[in-house]
């Protein structure tokens, strides 16, 4: 029994399979538009490719989110512009109605009718200005913001924050305000300020003492005295 094989044919078949595999890979790359389609194209390259694809998808979604936010702001801006026009007209009508010298009852009634229509329109704008089903101007979305500065506090309001009552808040005053005054044993003049003075400030039970004979205050006073003498 003999087993015969054609080495040349087997070698040709192997090259043919490799060529078919390369053609199949090239067609897959052309159809997908990407160089790396599977781990067979390179494991390290596939990891880098998937990472880049994830970043691209995130950036595209962020861009889409920005476009939606811009559209929402434009919608709110349009509604606020109309509300501003209504408020300006209400201000104009209130000033016109205050002119009692020339206004008669019919004119005042006409102004009142227009005011009621404007208020109804303003209420409708507040209730119907929406974006993607969310009302923008009725306070249901809440507010959250911060201001930068040494003397500006962080402002924060949530959707459950209650509005102030119509009658306002009741404040109890426990201490009557007093007018500030200056009291001293010697009149303060340009001539005697150069010798040095001590100033005591008292407010709310707290005292602050300023002594012009020391520190930066002394230098400033000497400069003022020098300028005063030059001018005189």
Outline the structure in words.
It is a single chain. The chain is mainly α and 232 residues long. Among the domains are: 71-157, f41 fragment of flagellin, N-terminal domain, CATH 1.20.1330.10; 190-231, no CATH class. Helices cover 54% and strands 9% of the residues. The protein is built from five helices and six strands; from the N terminus they run αααββββαββα. A two-stranded antiparallel ribbon has the order 1-2. Strand 5 and strand 6 (206-211) form a beta hairpin. Helix 2 packs antiparallel against helix 3. The longest helix is centred in the first third of the chain and has 55 residues, at 43-97. The mean pLDDT is 75.
Helix vs. strand class:
mainly alpha
The level-1 CATH class of the domain at 71-157: Mainly Alpha
Mean pLDDT: 75
- Output the helix-strand order: HHHEEEEHEEH
Count of helices?
A: 5
Topology:
Layout: H1 7-32, H2 43-97, H3 105-128, E1 130-131, E2 134-135, E3 143-145, E4 155-157, H4 190-193, E5 198-203, E6 206-211, H5 215-231
Antiparallel strand pairs: 1-2, 3-4, 5-6
Helix pairs in contact: 2-3
Question: Summed up, what is this model?
Answer:
With 232 residues, this protein is mainly alpha-helical. It contains five helices and six strands, in the order H-H-H-E-E-E-E-H-E-E-H. It has helices at residues 7-32, 43-97, 105-128, 190-193, 215-231, and strands spanning 130-131, 134-135, 143-145, 155-157, 198-203, 206-211.
Key terms for this structure?
two-stranded antiparallel ribbon, f41 fragment of flagellin, N-terminal domain, 6 strands, 232 residues, two-stranded antiparallel sheet
């Amino acid at each position: 029994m003999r087993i015969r094989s054609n080495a040349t044919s087997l070698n040709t078949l192997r090259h043919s399979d490799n060529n078919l595999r390369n053609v199949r890979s090239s067609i897959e790359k052309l159809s997908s538009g990407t160089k790396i389609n599977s781990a067979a194209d390179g494991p390290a390259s596939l990891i880098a490719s998937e990472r880049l694809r994830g970043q691209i998808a995130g950036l595209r979604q962020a861009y889409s989110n920005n476009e939606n936010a811009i559209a929402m702001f434009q919608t709110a801006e349009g509604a606020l512009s109309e509300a501003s026009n209504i408020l300006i007209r209400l201000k104009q009508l209130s000033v016109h109605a205050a002119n009692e010298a020339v206004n008669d009852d019919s004119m005042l009634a006409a102004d009142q009718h227009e005011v009621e229509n404007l208020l109804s329109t303003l209420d409708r704008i507040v209730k119907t200005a929406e974006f993607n089903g969310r009302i923008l101007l009725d306070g249901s979305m809440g507010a959250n913001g911060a201001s930068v500065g040494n003397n500006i506090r962080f402002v924060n309001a949530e959707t459950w924050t209650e509005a102030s009552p119509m009658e306002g808040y009741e404040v109890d005053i426990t201490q009557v305000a007093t007018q500030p005054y200056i009291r001293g044993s010697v009149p303060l003049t340009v001539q005697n300020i150069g010798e040095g003075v001590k100033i005591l400030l008292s407010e709310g039970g707290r005292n602050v003492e300023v002594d012009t004979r020391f520190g930066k205050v002394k230098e400033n006073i000497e400069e003022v005295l020098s300028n005063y003498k030059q001018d005189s």
